[in-house]
Amino acid sequence: MKYGVRTLILVVSGLVLSGPAVSGPVDAVEPAGATDEVTVGVFLHSPYVERDGSGAGLRGAGIEYMTAVLTEMGYAARFVVQPFSRVIVSLASGEIDASFNLMKTPERETFAYFPELPALRVGPVLVVRSGSTLADISSVHDLQGLNICYVQDSSVPEFLLVPGVFSFDFVRGQDWITQNLLKLLAKRCDAILDLNPHSYAIAADRQNLGDRIRIIPLPVEPTDFYVVFSRNSPRGAALVAAYNDVRAQEKQSYTDFIEPLLR
């Protein structure tokens, strides 16, 4: 199955969002020395974060991007793998300093600093079996009666927030992509929602299942995803200020790390 970058809605995020992106005061603090570690909570999802060949380390576009941008900021990265829902809890508590690939929501802004610029923009999709009668989506009512697999605690596009049309079947854990693929192919759900168009395509291809699924874009604008910093981390304010400075110079583009993995 081809999931070439030409089909993806990936842009270098040089777009300034309307209004200030960081709510509340941010007191600038001098960042610590280059040997200081920033704890980054991550959840497994290709091609951004995945286990390396040994199973002990991590690789992926997000790992490379965060390592590069934190180095530019004067810090070293320490990655901690957690289920998605735990990443959110850890950000709120200050157990981790940062994370990435998160949508901005009013709730998350209460415990995380969102920088001035998003890191990337991608469009949400539904993953269906290759034999599904669902060909394209123009209205949420095209999904009438479907049972849709999704990851617990993840954001839902506004387009889908219409009660009574379909139902969600939520999963937890670090292997949620594999869980959902197996449920879809076993006909235990009708479709899978994902916020990017390539995680399931890559996972299916690697398991020789690429010809058994199709990716259908949702008819919505691409979504902004951010690197975020915990408001309860002692240096969260310093980190978001340093990140904003690095992004203003545009030395490190997330898409520079993503595109080679999608060819």
TrEMBL record:
Secretion signal, residue range per the UniProt entry: 1-23
InterPro entries given in the database record: Solute-binding_3/MltF_N (IPR001638)
Keyword flag Transcription: no
Keyword Signal assigned: yes
Annotated Solute-binding protein family 3/N-terminal domain residues: 37-261
Keywords: Signal
Highest taxon in the source lineage: Bacteria
Classification via PANTHER family: AMINO-ACID-BINDING PROTEIN YXEM-RELATED, MEMBRANE-BOUND LYTIC MUREIN TRANSGLYCOSYLASE F
Record-given protein name: Solute-binding protein family 3/N-terminal domain-containing protein
Protein's organism: Alkalispirochaeta sphaeroplastigenens
